[in-house]
Amino acid sequence: MPGVASTNPALPMSSAQFASLPPDQQASYLRTLPPDSQAALLKDVRVMANRRFMRQSIEKYAYCPVSGGSGTSATYSSGTTLVFDLPVVGSGYAKGLLITYNLTVTLAAGTAATYLPTMAAPFNIFSELLLNYNGAQARMHPYMLKVVDATLGFERGVQNAVIAGQSVSGINTQIGGNANPGFQYPPTSAGANTWQGKMLLRLNAIDEYSSVPGMLPIMGVGNKPQLKLTCAPSFFAASPDPLLVPVGSGATGTGQALTSVTGNINVDVIYYDGTTMNDPSGIALDLTAEPTLQYYWDTPLNPLTSGTLNRQHIATLLEHWMVVGVVLDGNAATSQVPIPFIGASGANAGVANIAQFQLSADSVGQQNFQSWNVSNNISIYDHYDRQRRRYGQDLDPGVIVWVDAAGHGIPDSDNRNGSLVLNMQAGGYPATTHAYLMNSVSSANYTPRVETFLVSMNYNGLKIA
Q1: Calpha distance 134→464 (Å, rounded)
Q2: DSSP structure class, residue 10
Q3: How many domains does the chain have?
Q4: Alpha-carbon distances, residue 328 vs 5, 344, 403 (angstroms)
Q5: Mean pLDDT of 290-298
Q6: Is residue 10 one of the residues assigned to a domain?
Q7: What is the pLDDT of residues 170-224, one digit of tens each?
Q8: Where are the alpha helices (DSSP H) in 110-209?
Q9: Cβ-contact 370, 402 below 8 angstroms
Q10: Domain check: are 50 and 61 in the same one?
């Protein structure tokens, strides 16, 4: 009959044809197939339906209430942990969390005192971000959100910045953007400074419009997801750790000090519930056989010493879609804006202080994935050239993206093939290490080290119960 797919087993049916059949005809057709073919067909149908859910669902927002209380805002207070509950929303699945901060940072006038933001500002207004869903779904420093933004594509902005194209000043004021190309660091003048903007945690960071891993149920099934934001214990230091302290002393003036930090934090969830503009019946999402995507703060390389190749294992044994090293050399750089992760004055200023770096499949650097100036005379600036051509911009000095799977291929929401992932599971490369040789480090200001952040696929899937 025209328009009706055949159930004759001699005529194999595509997953799209199978999905178009009524349930009784689907069951009839499945009985004609061997068990392995049944499983493969049902997987294809599930993947097709999930992809449709991701691509056609209308993006919706809901506020996250402060845990244990009421209202939408939590008061910022140094060293405390702010806790937000994700709301229960119909048949919704969270795909992102939008964190809004509105702070007044008051710095002492001193005697012509000057101040500088640090390189991780404003993300380091929080020292840790933890998203719990039957365990840690994301645990990291919020600075990683900036790196994820920067790697999403050619000339993409970070922290709401406009790199090219129109920029409206009234919008910039409210969302921490910038009318000029590049990233906008928050103001640090003596007196009261307004720090206002937004941070986006992408739960399905591979591809927000087609990739399912990382989506979180928020329809009341299982434990309620909860976001914990730890406010920076120290907001100011004369010689600050640029990952953990937002403000440091400038090169001139005296009497630098923090007077106060006041303000509020709000969190909204971005979610899909299957509502579309072309199908009144809506679409369903099935996570039962999907992996989940998680953020990890891996074991740091500490201590970091100079003049030798310092090597560190990646401790989290999963399939990694992003591996990022943030090198902090401990050198003071109060004459640079902002205060960078690496920035000793003199011959070793900035990125030149990292003389060599390497990613290896083993513990001793004999099987190398990447090797820059380690016994091969390949300039580290070749790495930075490739990075600039891939992203259309430079990353912060000291940030090395070792693995960026989504940036090397088309994210495939079916089997995730075609991307350059680092497989550290059994049968992969569980002994992978990253290594760095520094010209100079200093422990006089803060602890020199390399922090490692991961975005990883967990094939155990999302534990809902």
Answers
A1: 7
A2: T
A3: 2
A4: 62, 11, 19
A5: 94
A6: no
A7: 877 777 666 555 678 899 999 999 999 999 999 999 888 888 999 999 998 767 8
A8: 143-150, 169-175
A9: yes
A10: no
Tokens for 158?
A: 């970070």
Would you state the pLDDT for residue 441?
A: 93
Is 9 among the domain residues?
A: no
pLDDT in tens, 223-243: 789 999 999 999 999 999 999
Q: Are 158 and 258 in contact (CB under 8 A)?
A: no
pLDDT band at residue 26 under the 50/70/90 scheme? confident
Q: 399 in helix, strand or coil?
A: strand
CATH code assigned at 417: 2.70.9.30
Strands 236-237 and 247-249: parallel
Task: Tell me how far apart the terminal alpha carbons of the chain are, to the nearest angstrom.
Answer: 45
Query: Do residues 341 and 248 both lie within one domain?
Result: yes
pLDDT of residue 3: 43
CA distance 33 to 4: 19
The range of the structural domain enclosing residue 380 comes to 56-458
Over range 84-102, report the average pLDDT: 94
d(CA 64, CA 73): 9
In angstroms, the CA 397 to CA 386 distance is: 15
| Nearby residues of 444 by Cβ (< 8 Å), 6 or more positions away | 239, 330, 332
Strands (E), 35-92: 60-63, 73-75, 81-85
Spatial separation of the C-alpha atoms in residues 341 and 121, rounded to whole Å? 11
Instruction: Tell me the two tokens of residue 219.
Output: 């329809």
For residue 364, what are its two tokens?
Answer: 């001793």
What tokens were used for 192?
A: 């009261």
Smallest CA-to-CA distance from 197 within 186, 181, 188 is with 186
Cα–chain center distance at 447: 24
> In this structure, are 29 and 73 located in the same domain?
no
Closest CA to 445 of 327, 285, 302, 332: 332
